[in-house]
């Protein structure tokens, strides 16, 4: 079975690992990003890259149209693209707050809404949203990011109720700290502090997040919807 899969922010980091995992499984994969580039290891599987800033509904619509022409309607959507703009509340500008919400939460709304029309017609679909352990635990200096990531949980659970009767599942994966560009900016000291709080005592590799996403998109996960699946080495236990 070769499905039409879209991974937003699939040109690097966690999104790339997710895209590779679907491509290795034989799916037709499209990745979007603001740069519109596709890394060679992913292009080797015939995956396509589409330039698309998810803060722009027009670009989202155009990207879906292009993907539908090349691969057919999106059957598996992974809303992965995300940003951070960390700072303490008193220093956080309104733009720091709203731009993170616009990318991480409203961006997911834009792509899920665009995908869902075709999924409803097909009476099947799989949606996975990439949240974060921070959305549930909170983190000083990340009020904007945490708000966007916990917002994804309410968004997903509402849609799980709204779309379930049409055989569309929508789940959330909440990674802990993962080795990517996003976490490369943290100081060695901060990294040590983080790892000290992780029962498994290390960061995750992007492929370890991808494995959970691929499972939630598989036939084996047909009865799982509205779930929040942690891939965090135990960091967020208790939620
Ligand atoms: P990276 O910074 O490595 O990659 C972010 C991706 O998002 C890039 O592909 C980037 O592409 C894309 N992106 C950002 N803004 C936009 C936009 N406006 N429109 C389209 N694409 C955009 O991050 P990670 O791989 O680390 O993170 C991926 C997801 O996982 C994010 O949602 C992040 O919040 C989440 N996460 C990450 C964790 C970590 O420890 N790394 C932990 C928990 C969650 P481009 O810049 O080319 O547009």
From TrEMBL:
Annotated pathway: Lipid metabolism; fatty acid biosynthesis
EC number: 1.1.1.100
GO MF annotation terms: 3-oxoacyl-[acyl-carrier-protein] reductase (NADPH) activity
NCBIfam families assigned: 3oxo_ACP_reduc (TIGR01830), PRK12826.1-2 (NF009466)
Subunit description: Homotetramer.
Family: Belongs to the short-chain dehydrogenases/reductases (SDR) family.
Record InterPro entries: 3oxo_ACP_reduc, KR_dom, NAD(P)-bd_dom_sf, Sc_DH/Rdtase_CS, SDR_fam
Class of this enzyme: oxidoreductase
Source domain of life: Bacteria
Organismal lineage: Bacteria, Bacillati, Actinomycetota, Actinomycetes, Kitasatosporales
Transmembrane segments: none
Residue span(s) of domain Ketoreductase: 3-181
Reaction catalysis annotation: a (3R)-hydroxyacyl-[ACP] + NADP(+) = a 3-oxoacyl-[ACP] + NADPH + H(+)
Protein name (record): 3-oxoacyl-[acyl-carrier-protein] reductase
Pfam families according to UniProt: adh_short_C2
Main function: Catalyzes the NADPH-dependent reduction of beta-ketoacyl-ACP substrates to beta-hydroxyacyl-ACP products, the first reductive step in the elongation cycle of fatty acid biosynthesis.
Keywords of this entry: Fatty acid biosynthesis, Fatty acid metabolism, Lipid biosynthesis, Lipid metabolism, NADP, Oxidoreductase
Organism listed in the record: Kitasatospora paranensis
Gene: fabG
């Amino acid at each position: 079975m070769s499905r039409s899969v879209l991974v937003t922010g699939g040109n690097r980091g966690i999104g790339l690992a997710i895209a590779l995992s679907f491509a290795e499984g034989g799916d037709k994969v499209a990745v979007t990003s603001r740069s519109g580039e596709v890394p060679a290891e992913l292009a080797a599987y015939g995956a396509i890259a589409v330039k698309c800033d998810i803060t722009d509904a027009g670009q989202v619509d155009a990207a879906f149209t292009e993907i539908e022409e090349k691969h057919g309607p999106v059957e598996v959507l992974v809303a992965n693209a995300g940003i951070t703009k960390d700072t303490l509340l008193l220093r956080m500008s309104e733009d720091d707050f709203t731009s993170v919400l616009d990318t991480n939460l409203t961006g997911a709304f834009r792509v899920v809404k665009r995908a869902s029309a075709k999924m409803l017609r097909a009476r099947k679909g799989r949606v996975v949203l990439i949240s974060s352990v921070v959305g549930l635990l909170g983190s000083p200096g990340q009020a904007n990011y945490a708000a966007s990531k916990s917002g994804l949980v309410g968004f997903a659970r509402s849609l799980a109720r709204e779309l379930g009767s049409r055989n569309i599942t929508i789940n959330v994966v909440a990674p802990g700290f993962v080795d990517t560009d996003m976490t490369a900016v943290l100081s060695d000291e901060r990294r040590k502090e983080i790892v000290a709080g992780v029962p498994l005592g290390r960061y995750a590799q992007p492929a370890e997040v991808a494995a959970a996403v691929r499972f939630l998109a598989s036939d084996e996960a047909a009865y799982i919807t509205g779930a929040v699946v942690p891939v965090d080495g135990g960091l967020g236990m208790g939620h």
